[in-house]
Amino acid sequence: MAPAATSRIAVVTGASGGIGAATARQLAAAGYRVVLTARRKELIEAIAEEITASGGAATAYQLDVTDRDAVDEFATAFATIGVLVNNAGGALGADPVATGDPADWRAMYETNVIGTLNLTQALLPKLEASGDGTVVVISSTAGHGTYEGGGGYVAAKHGAHVLAETLRLEIVGRPVRVVEIAPGMVKTDGFALTRFGGDAQKAAKVYEGVAEPLTADDVADTVTWAVTRPSHVNVDLLVLRPRAQASNTKVHRDV
Ligand code: 8X3
């Protein structure tokens, strides 16, 4: 059996909204002492307060996952950690490869891949010290197949997927599981809006006519399920999509 979650620490990156915030709330409800990290301090502080007010244990720590010095400093606060959820990331632009902005590609690689690398490297000794750690990588179905306009996001998420797969090979035999959760279409407040530079109309088009895109809570539910399996059970990869989405390019729309 996995040790009781109670009093174990779960670090969640990108916890200021969407999947990260939902995951922090659900892990706290499962008994973890949650540490919410993100760049936007006020947001994570508010969520941590809300979790605490409802009887959970949560703290907020402002962190940019691409800043390695800051990540290393953050890691010094812990002797052991039970769970690391690498959720920080996201998409910038939906341009074809021929015209995509290299700055967007670079930024996406930095957050989705290097950010995950930074946290994982810094916290791996602490996860191992817990005797039963779990690294979760929130990748995407964009890490398992491409689509037109996927561009740098697809490339970066393939990087995150490969990081998870390679790490699992390299640390086998040590007491740390590596779990990859790959969501398809998830409707959150921020994802599509960020991708389209704040253009609400373009963002709304992503979900147009789709009966029920996944919610942040749907993804948080799978994360919580995966990390609370008995210790010897490693959920290598869990791909989830809404029923209306059969593949990256096949979505049923009632329009
Ligand atoms: C989000 C899924 O289809 O926008 O990670 O690439 S998609």
TrEMBL record:
The first-level EC class reads oxidoreductase
Q: What EC number is given for this enzyme?
A: 1.-.-.-
State the source organism's domain of life: Bacteria
Domain named Ketoreductase is located at: 8-189
| Keywords from the named record | Oxidoreductase
Gene Ontology molecular function terms on file: oxidoreductase activity, acting on the CH-OH group of donors, NAD or NADP as acceptor
Q: Which family does it belong to?
A: Belongs to the short-chain dehydrogenases/reductases (SDR) family.
Q: What is this protein called?
A: SDR family oxidoreductase
